[in-house]
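User: Structure please.
Assistant: Input sequence and predicted structure:
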Amino acid sequence: MEELGDLAAQALRLVTTRFPDALGAVLGGSVAHGRATASSDLDVAILLPDSDISRREVVRHEGRLAELFLNTVADIPEFFEWDRARRRGTVLFIYDQGLPLMDPHGDLSRVRERARAVLAAGPPPLTAGEWERGRYSLTCFMDDLVDTPSANRYEQLALADFTLREAGHLLTAYYGAWTGIGKWLPRRLLSADVVRGKALLDGHQRLAEHADPTPLVTAAEEVLDLLGGPLRDGYLQRWRA
């Protein structure tokens, strides 16, 4: 396990070396949560003066990869709304939960307060069309998973991944909670509903290890039951609203 203090110092050197005009910086991701390994990258959100350009960069600094979320102060409100609309809040969580590295004029403190207010408001609710499309998609993945022979592992595993992702998307939306991708999907699922979220994750693991789709299908059905049940015949999606 890498020492947090050493990694924070490394991140600060990156900021001051590459962005000497930075108005603030915060270290997030696995490092800030004490989960860093020797190969963990640095997730750093950096505030820039309005004369600069908002962007996302991946660089290597002192032998370690760093993913940089760079935003001018003026762009922060619009960017936070974009991050909220994705329902993942990736950068919002970095500002809220990350480790401050520098804040010479108080800009970082103000941005962190804004991030916390946006997070407290929660992600936007799904529209009626998005709920129906989600129910229909999960039903299709679930039905295909039941119909796929366990000997066809390529297709079974692909369907299991889509089933977990769609069920997770709907379950977090049901609770008005934030969702995630990659390693953040299990964390967000367990945070939103530890019982149903764990059932989905356990079912996915059971299929991966033993080619048994039953627990995952059962867990997906329980999510659908919260939303009115599976959706098959009668589903309609218009090309234009």
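The longest helix spans residues 153-174.
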